[in-house]
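Q: Hi! First time doing this. I have a protein sequence and I read that you can turn it into a structure. Is that right? Here it is:
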Amino acid sequence: MAIADLNLEQRARPRESFPTWLARRGTAFWVVGVLLLAMPALASSFWLVQIIAYSMILGLVALSLMFLAGYGGIVSLVQMTVAAFAGYLVAILGDSAISQISLHWPWWMAAPVAILVATLFGTLCGALSVRTEGIYTIMITLAIASAFYYLTLQNYTVFNGFSGFNGVKPPVFLSIDWGQNLPFYYLTLACSILAYGTVVYVARAPFGLALQGTRDNPRRMAALGFDVVAHRIAAYSFASFIAACAGVLLVWYQRQISPGTAGVGPVVDMLIIAVVGGLSRPIGPFIGALIYVLLRTFSLDMLEGVGLDGKRYQLVIGLGFLVIVLFSPDGLIGIWQRLRERYRRGSDARDAGMRVGGGAP
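A: Yes, that's right. Below is the predicted 3D structure, encoded as C-alpha cells:
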C-alpha cells in the first residue's frame, strides 16, 4: 500500500490553526500530558529513564521519519544515521574517555555544532535522493546508512573503529547535572514536546501544506509554480534537525556510541517503530517507540519463560509488527481512530433512537 493511501483521513480533515488544534484536544491528550509531567513521582528510576525517556528518544528519530513519510511521501532510512552522526560528533568534539581523539570542547559548543553538521549531512542525503521515488529512495538512503556504518566500523582515526567512544559526559548547566535521572527525563520530555508541537505547527503552515501537496500530486504542484525538489530537500533538513537532536540525547543517555548505533538493524527498527505507531499522526512514532522498547526490554524474560532463547527478542518484535500491520496498515493510531469512530457512530445512533422514541420531531 502506498504511503499516500495511509493518509486519506488526514487529507480529508479541514485545515486549522495550531491554537485551534490545541484547544480542541480531548481529555485523553491532557491526561497523558499531566501524567508525563508527574511521572517522576509515580515511576521508579528504571521506568523513568530506561523505558520512558529512551522511548521518547527513539520516538524523536521515528518522528523525523514520520514527517517525511506522512507529510512528504518520502520513506527515508537515513534518519537513524543522522542521529548516530550527531552522537559521534558530540563524542568527538566534546569530552569522552577516548581523550586522544575527543577535542574537549564545552558542551554548549559541541552540541550545537553536532546538530548543525548532522543536519547538513541529512540535507545532503536528501538532495541525493529526492529525485527518486518509492523503492529507489529506500535503496539510496539504505546505501548511505550502510556506507556510514562501515565507515565508522573501519575508521580508527576519527571514529575509533569498532570500539567507538565511551565515557561521554552529559552537560552540567545551572549547577544541574543533566545526566542524572530526573533532569535527563525532563530534558528529554521537553525536547519531545517541542518537536511534537513544531511538527504539528509546520504541518499546518504554508510549507507543510505545500509539502503535502507535493506528496499527493507533484506534477500539479509543479504546474502551479512550486519547486517540488526544493520543498522535499527542505523537508529533509527539518527532519534531520529533529533526528540530530535525538542523536545528542541518545549519546548523553548511553554515555557511549559505537558503529552498532548506526547499523542496518537500528535503521530498519526506526521504520518499524514509525509504521507500528502510525504514519498519519505525529504521536504515532512515540507510541511505536514505547511498544518497541517494552518488547525489547521484557521479551527476554517472556521467551525464557516459555523455554526459548531470550536472544530471539527480534522475533517477538517482528511478529508484533506483522500482526499490527495485518490488521491496521496505518498502525496503532489507525486502530484507535477506528474504535473512536465506531463508538461515536454508536453514540449518535443511540441518541437518534432516543429522540425518535421520545417523540422528537
